[in-house]
Design a protein that fits this description.
Two copies of one chain form a homodimer.
Chain A (H helix, E strand, L loop, with lengths): L9 E5 L3 H13 L2 E6 L4 H4 L8 E4 L1 H9 L3 H5 L3 E3 L1 E5 L5 E5 L7 E5 H14 L3 E4 L1 E7 L4 E6 L5 E5 L2 E4 L6 H6 L6 E16 L13 E6 L4 E6 L5 E8 L12 H11 L10 H7 L3 E9 L2 E2 L3 E3 L2 H4 L8 H18 L4 H31 L5 H16 L7 H7 L4 H18 L5 H4 L5 H6 L12
Parallel strand pairs in A: 1-2, 1-12, 2-8, 5-14, 12-19
Antiparallel strand pairs in A: 3-7, 4-7, 5-6, 9-10, 10-11, 13-16, 13-17, 14-15, 15-16, 18-19
């Protein structure tokens, strides 16, 4: 619903990435005058994705926002559903673990193609997107942005009613906010980095592995994962320590690299025709968690998405959280009837605990994916949880499902999950649990949990 | 001892505050070619202290460094020894709690006069200090600093072998480092701010209160403190929430202010002739804790003091920690024989846990000062600890004494203190402890503590 005051108000967005272009669509549909500036060139022309990961996992929260702005049909064409995790052990043996029940999937999607779709849709609605315009300063009180054109070097100033920074983990707007008194901020890097390596289609033009799974090679302190692409290739990502043994630092040449893959990921080597070429050419990227508060300043500026809460990628929720930000901001604009200082205050107060929660969940999932998914006790506890969910479908919902297949606030998903973990820890101490688990008193287990009914969605 | 290579090497220091000017002295004495740039004007000419607190508590760690560079005699002339805390309750009743044993004192010292002394000494040794030169950028790999002259606006570049940032909590050098990959960083503000109010000498020209104490008005969620000055005035600092009831936000005018002081700090009101004038004129400053790592970059730059570890002021250790940084860096330069990349690596590795520990201790002392010092149980436990220390002077040393009167690394003081707290918590559960405490088995209590002998110093 368009707001009465909207047509009078101008909004400048910094960043035409996934979150920025979706937010532009939301705001334009509400009637605001929206202009976007992005420091990068138009990615539809260059075909680059700016050094970011190639594919992402789209799940319920992100999909819901895309659906709200009428893009469900278009987006579905880009999605490759993944029904579960396929674990590869050191001998090449496979174990499949479904993500949820029938129909509950996460979707591999190309960052570049989704971004293209959103940028094109925003422009179709009348949003003006200016590429190659780098934000070099912001006057927070005046909502005035200073921009530098990357081609000409020309500097210009743009003043609007509102400035929103959707300019990612290294947000220029947030850098300015950081110098404001009483702005809390942290950036923490993992000891691990990541590197992408591709698996092309087979000679016969097919996927090299099951394309309805997210593949994981969990190896304790590190892991490899692979997501399918529409062109029947996979993109693998090696999450690996920067230093130590083994690490990015410890593999010096093709011989060492191949020997390491041969002993550690034996079943994948044959599918990587250019392993060494890509490994030594592709960048090693770092993984950062960024937290800050407040997200708004002087009632005129706001940061959103990675700009206000960058997380590690292990829950596949970075984009989904950013898209959910857009949906919730849109709701809050309605609730507060277009009063921006009130909108910003209400939005950040509501959303900050959820942003903190998904940061925690994302980090925990790293430990789970690289380490625990190979542990028989962990797999048994997941089996018991699946049974609990089967018997009490609205009363015991695994944390993964709440996060991935529902709209429950992340902070609630985290809190309920912590309760479930404590309960499951006690359950797993039952003598001979490996053989007796089907005789557990499942009702008593569910009754130990504080009750809240949650509805799961397939998309 | 001057290093052989020292005379060949040039060091640029950013910031001629307390830590910068002391470090300049240390490095010049070693034979390095030292140049300092400070964005502020020469404070010996302006008499200002740049909006920072007026007086500080100098204790063992800071004094040791000053003594090492031969300034003990000069510094002593500026020191006002404080033997303990003087607590003022809501009725104006006083309770005195000594900081340590006879001769163990902390010293109130004027920030401005100590800074003048250090800057003058550095210049005397041949250090060139350039005032009014603001660092606007640093090339970390080239050790090249870009400066802007505040009078002329002229921009100049200075390249040296090494750049060290002693430019405080809002360090320009650290701001550049923050943009480097894998630089961990956090800035967290307290919900409390502070405001200074002065107590002039009495009509007869004397101190208005006991000048050998640090005065505290502990009031639970907030507090007032006062430190004596050489001119027989006191400087009071109100540590108070920014918002809520009561807070800086809740006192709107002279009437409300005076009524609040009348009911909350009744015994001090008469000594503050210009309470409202100062309260409504003086700034309300915020309190930040800053942590980061690494402290060095490319083997050419280092940050030190508040620039790498700004803490809240409640343990009186900010300056002491910064001076101890200088002493330890000086030692590490010797140990590593002037090899700068090795010096920086060894220094930051050794010192980071101590910087984190004093940040924790400083925050804990805020809770202790504003809240616990008025609690009878707390006072009893301190009395028992004092007895333990009296009986076993090298085996049970209160945490405050380790931090304030010894050179034990802060991280050790924190760890031993945590053990002591756990032991004391059990001791305090003894039935009727208030009346039976003298019958405790003190030897058994001390034996429960992991043993490490620590020597305390009077200065």
């Amino acid at each position: 619903m368009a707001n009465k005051r909207a047509s009078l108000e101008s909004i400048t967005l910094l960043g035409a990435g996934l979150v920025g272009s979706l937010l532009a669509i939301y705001l334009k549909r509400k009637g605001y005058h929206v202009t976007v500036f992005d420091k990068r060139p138009d990615l539809r022309k260059t075909g680059e994705v700016g050094g970011r990961s190639i594919n992402l996992a789209l799940s319920r929260r992100g999909y819901r926002a895309l659906e709200e702005v009428g893009l469900a049909g278009e987006v579905q064409k880009l999605m490759l559903p993944m029904k579960g995790r396929m674990m590869h052990d050191e001998k090449g043996n496979l174990t499949h673990q479904p993500y949820g029940k029938e129909g509950q999937v996460i979707n591999s999607i190309s960052r570049g193609r989704l971004n293209d779709l959103l940028v094109t849709e925003a422009e179709k609605l009348g949003v003006k997107i200016n590429f190659g315009e780098k934000c070099i300063d912001v006057d927070l009180k005046a909502a005035r942005v200073q921009l530098e054109n990357s081609a000409t070097g020309a500097v210009s100033k743009v003043t609007s009613d509102i400035v929103i920074g959707t300019d990612g983990a290294f947000s220029a707007l947030r850098n300015v906010m950081q110098k404001e008194d009483r702005f809390n901020y942290s950036q923490y890097y993992l000891e691990h980095g990541y590197k992408e390596i591709s698996i092309p289609p087979t000679a016969s033009g097919d996927f090299a592995m099951d394309h309805q799974s997210l593949h994981i090679w969990p190896r304790g302190k590190f892991m490899l994962i692979a997501l399918p692409n529409l062109d029947k290739s996979f993109t693998c990502t090696l999450f690996f320590p920067f230093s130590g043994q083994p690490s990015f630092e410890s593999l010096h040449n093709e011989k060492e690299l191949v020997a390491f893959f041969q002993s550690t990921f034996p079943d994948i080597l044959a599918y990587m025709p250019d392993l060494a070429g890509e490994y030594f050419k592709n960048p090693t990227s770092s993984l950062v968690t960024i937290k800050c508060y407040p997200w708004s300043s002087h009632g005129k500026t706001l940061i959103l998405g990675d700009a206000s809460h960058a997380i590690v990628p292990f829950y596949g929720q970075g984009m989904n959280a950013g898209f959910e930000d857009c949906r919730i901001l849109n709701e809050v604009i309605e609730e507060q009837d277009g009063d921006w200082p009130a909108i910003f205050e209400a939005f950040q107060k509501q959303r900050k605990p959820d942003a903190d929660a998904i940061a925690t969940l994302a980090f925990q999932n790293f430990i789970e994916m690289r380490d625990k998914v190979a542990d028989p006790d962990f797999l048994l506890s997941k089996k018991i949880e699946a049974r609990l969910h089967q018997l009490f479908s609205t009363r015991w919902i695994p944390q993964y499902s709440m996060t991935t297949f529902s709209d429950v606030p992340y902070a609630e998903a985290l809190a309920i999950g912590q309760q479930q973990s404590a309960i499951m820890e006690r359950v797993m101490k039952t003598p001979n649990i490996e053989v007796t688990w089907e005789q557990l008193d499942f009702e008593a287990i569910v009754n130990a949990l504080d009750q809240r009914k949650i509805t799961l969605k397939t998309q």
